[in-house]
Automatic annotation (TrEMBL), chains A, B:
GO MF term list: DNA-binding transcription factor activity; transcription cis-regulatory region binding
Record's keyword annotation contains DNA-binding: yes
InterPro entries registered for this protein in UniProt: Homeodomain-like_sf, HTH-type_TetR-like_transc_reg, HTH_TetR, Tet_transcr_reg_TetR-rel_C_sf, TetR_C_16
Domain HTH tetR-type: 29-89
Residue ranges flagged as DNA-binding region: 52-71
Protein name stated in the entry: TetR/AcrR family transcriptional regulator
Region: Disordered, residue numbers: 1-31
PROSITE patterns referenced in this protein's UniProt entry, alphabetically: HTH_TETR_2
Pfam families referenced in this protein's UniProt entry, alphabetically: TetR_C_16, TetR_N
Bias-annotated ranges (Basic and acidic residues): 1-10
Sorted UniProt keywords: DNA-binding
Compositionally biased region (Basic residues): 13-23
DNA sequence: ACTAGAACTCATCATGTGTTGAATTTATGT
DNA sequence: ACATAAATTCAACACATGATGAGTTCTAGT
């Protein structure tokens, strides 16, 4: 696939209006992806309500009406930008192939591997930030998290849901302190320090 | 002109516009408090950016300009509504008067005692929700949490900051799952169940 | 009793929002 | 080569937002 569409398309938006003439652009269509990239970045940064369609369009170097043309309305953009914040099918095998006594460390490392990479963290942050202030987004997240994550994780090792949610709460809370609020010293700790800090707790919850 | 006589009869008191005549109202001033109450509720519900000055004014049965008159601008309202989300001076003695071996349970119970009462939970939720999408609010929360909570708690029992933040993360994460996202079954668990679930973890972190 | 100032509303401004319809240019199927 | 469809911009709507300045009514200090 063509990598000509870089992921930092949203970065070069600080320029002038850059009035393009109307009408279809020559060459294959790449704007749809650019819009989605810009949307993901802005939703991750400001949440659903804070990210405006116009800012998303600006980030993609595109007219706001084009966003509307592709996705119908703002919620359409959000849904398109959010499809699988993280692919469970990719992570669950790792968990399944782990000895019970190593579950804690494995889980923490998986979590960190996602959160440490900005482009993987973005959709999750977008979801979380949006769910905090927007009821519809909260419903989406609740359903995704419940059915796609908790339920499967529970059936996997036969661990009660409450325990799993306690473990998830531990991870989510620390991620918020570390990546959103950025309080020290936890924001500057190394991944290994986080693992050392949390693995025993997660292990406890999942036993 | 002709309808002005019948306009402000006592008939339309239950209506929405509720047009009050301009000028100061008789009696002692109670509007300032009403505005703050409305502000706290709305900030807790929608976060800083989601709560509009007009909605706050409407909630207090007051003209938007009055909010401006009292607090200067929106940030002024927020700051006035937020002073001490929770009073540390009130809670720390409880913590201090607890045996080290009971610290875990005590902490969880204190957290729950705050979060279970809607009017005590409101300012914290407002802070949290706002900090998730608004940078200035995030700074406020980071500073409050760092200096007023973590630092004091650390010096109290000589526990490393990282440990305290791990414990705080556990509590914050579970509170989000329980009160914001409202995922089951943790949203419907009794306080005692939450204590049983989390106390050992908090105890571990703080040892 | 008088007056300075506080409380309070109104009308309005400039800006930003999501959304829509029409116009223009290019790509695609025949 | 032609017609249809897709991609793209422009102009505009209707509405919400935070902010101001001016005017009206009350309270409080003298």
């Amino acid at each position: 696939m063509t990598e000509s569409a870089q992921r930092d398309t949203a970065r070069n938006a600080a320029r002038k209006p850059a009035r393009r003439p109307p009408g279809r652009r020559p060459g294959p269509t790449e704007t749809r992806e650019a819009i989605l990239a810009s949307a993901r970045e802005l939703f991750a940064d400001k949440g659903y309500d804070g990210a405006s369609l116009r800012a998303i369009a600006r980030g993609a170097g595109v007219d706001p009406a084009l966003v509307h043309h592709f996705f119908g309305n703002k919620e359409g953009v959000f849904i398109a930008a959010m499809q699988f914040p993280v692919d469970p099918g990719e992570l669950l095998p790792k968990i399944f192939g782990t000895r019970r006594e190593d579950l804690g460390e494995t889980m923490v490392r998986i979590f960190l591997s996602v959160w440490e990479m900005p482009e993987r963290r973005a959709p999750i942050l977008a979801m979380l930030r949006s769910a905090m202030t927007n009821e519809r987004a909260a419903v989406m997240m609740r359903e995704f998290v419940s059915s796609a994550l908790f339920a499967r994780a529970a059936e996997l090792h036969g661990i009660p849901l409450l325990r799993i949610q306690a473990a998830a709460g531990q991870m989510i809370g620390v991620m918020i302190l570390r990546y959103v609020l950025e309080v020290e010293p936890i924001a500057s700790s190394t991944p290994d320090e986080i693992v050392e800090l949390l693995a025993p707790t997660i292990q406890r919850h999942l036993s």
